[in-house]
Amino acid sequence: MDTVKKRAAAEAVRLEHKYGIKSGSTGGEVFKLNVVPTGSLALDYALGTGGWPLGHLVEVFGPPDIGKSSVIGFNAIKSAQKMGLFCGIIALEPGFDGDWAQKNGVDPEAVVVARPNNGEEAFEMLYEWVADDIIDFVIFDSIGSVITASELAQDEMKSRVGGQSKLITDGVKRVLVPTWKNNKGIILLNQVRDDMRSRIPGQVESPGGHALKHTCAIRVQLKPTGAPFKAKVGGEDVVIGRTIVSIIKRNKLSEGSNRRAEFDFYQMETDEHSVGIDMAKDVIATGIRTRVIEKAGAWFRHHAFPGDKQQLQGKDAVNEFLLNDEKALEGIRQEVLAVMLKKQLEATSTKPKLEVVS
After folding, report:
1. Which residues touch 217 (CB under 8 Å, ≥6 apart)?
2. How far apart are CA 354 and CA 341, in angstroms?
3. Which fold would CATH assign to domain 30-273?
4. Measured between alpha carbons, how far is residue 131 from residues 36, 175, 334 in Å?
5. How confident is the model at residue 158 (pLDDT cuts 50, 70, 90)?
6. Which of 19, 60, 183, 316 has CA atoms 20 to 30 A from the CA of 11?
7. Whole-Å CA distances, 57 to 201, 216, 220, 323, 324
């Protein structure tokens, strides 16, 4: 067996020399998994990775106005910028608003926004960014808006059958390897269409063909749940936010498939809430779920809470405390991620190297 192991190691080295970095390795080698926090601790935990993984393609799809660009895109960019990563947006839906991005915590001056003329240009830009040392983290907004050059031609208004799916298939397969080898991050935002194959009314699926689904290491579906939050603005009831449920439809990097995460997102600033994910409520719910925060009736206990008994009464009191104490909020977040990592190590004999940076 030792002879076989030496031969495996030698062949891995040969492949590296001949075909380049990460072209060869033994099966026992574990590559470090760098992640970008999603902005929601519940989603970080449900993914089982602690965030969006670099080096892999991610698809996030959902209905209109669910918050794909804001909740997913801007929160990912905000986290990536804190890590010092250079971010870019390929905007096939050219509605990027710098002021709105800034309200969501993004520095718009440090983001490159590319507005391609057609789908071919979009995937060419994406390949250039991940193949070279240019952009570290990319939001592709969106796959559902991809249109081929032939569809745009004045003399050919009718689209070719399967033209969009073929372009997407070729595009995502082309960027798959350089994304992995150069440790780039790609989130492909997508829309939904009625699933004509389903006998159940209301079933939806993301467009783009089967290759897109097979290529992405992680696929997340967003859905609204419950009634939207409303507040009086100018004497009228105005929607200011909603609860979003994230369903992990596919996960090749963890055992997180079919797991769910819920969090609140506010699209309008009020006296009680700023724009973005309700981080305090998100951390409380996930902390209780993982038993990092102990709950007994209306009392909540954690070593970061004030007082000799280190406990607070009522969620509102906990929420207010965490909103005013970023150190305690981050401490609980890291404890939850440690619980997640411990479960991973207990579930497998191969210990993955997980690095979570916020």
Report:
1. 53, 56, 57, 58, 250, 251, 252, 253
2. 8
3. Rossmann fold (3.40.50)
4. 20, 8, 33
5. low
6. 183
7. 30, 5, 12, 33, 36
Residue 140 phi/psi, 5-degree rounding, is: -100, 110
Q: What's the chain's average pLDDT?
A: 89
Q: Is the pLDDT of residue 352 over 50?
A: no
Residues contacting residue 240 through CB under 8 Å, at least 6 positions apart: 229, 230, 231, 233, 266, 267, 268, 270, 273
State CA 68 to chain mean position distance.
Answer: 10
For 247, list phi and psi in degrees, rounded to 5.
-110, 120
Task: Mark residue 20 as left, alpha or beta (left: phi above 0; alpha: psi -120 to 50; beta: remaining).
Answer: left
Whether cis (ω within 30° of 0) applies to the bond prior to 165 is no
Task: Provide the whole-model pTM.
Answer: 0.90
* pLDDT for residue 318: 94
Taking a C-beta distance cutoff of 8 angstroms, is the pair 186, 58 a contact? yes
Q: Rounded to an integer, what distance in angstroms lies between the CA atom of residue 119 and that of residue 256? A: 32
Q: What angle do CA 241, 242, 243 make, to 5 degrees?
A: 145
pLDDT tops 60 at residue 155: no
